[in-house]
Give the backbone structure.
Amino acid sequence: MRTTKIRAAAAALGLLALAGCGSSSDGSGTASGEGSGGEVANAVLATADSDLGEIVVDADGRTVYVFDKDTADSGQSACSGECLAKWPPVPAESDDPVVDGVTGEIGTITRDDGSRQVTLSGMPLYLYAGDSQAGDVTGQAVGGIWWVVAADGTKVSAAPTSEPAAVPGY
């Protein structure tokens, strides 16, 4: 009887070990990976399929945007004060953010408050407070100056499926 329990325990451990050998992707298609496979752990940016094509998203699957008032490679963000309440920066934990599926040049800038913000092709990246869930692209073309970003860092100029709300002052 003791031998049977030992064999059963060994078999259970073997199954647990095999279960741990699976893919690192959870297959959910959210956050860091729809469209990219989610192969890179801890990616700050990844790509995802959307109504606007393949776009850049943050680690939580939220759509990433660029701001026409920013200047590429300036090392600065033109979004401050009230702008940041609607358009928070994509934060960088290091000077060399990890990405998955993003092909444009990745970098960071240091904001006035000392925090780091991720850049793509020299442009600071933002999220939109009006996007209520992963995959939303409601910030597309807001004020005619906010744009979803493609994997290569170019802004997506496709028209949104519905007219975005006007944002005063932007």
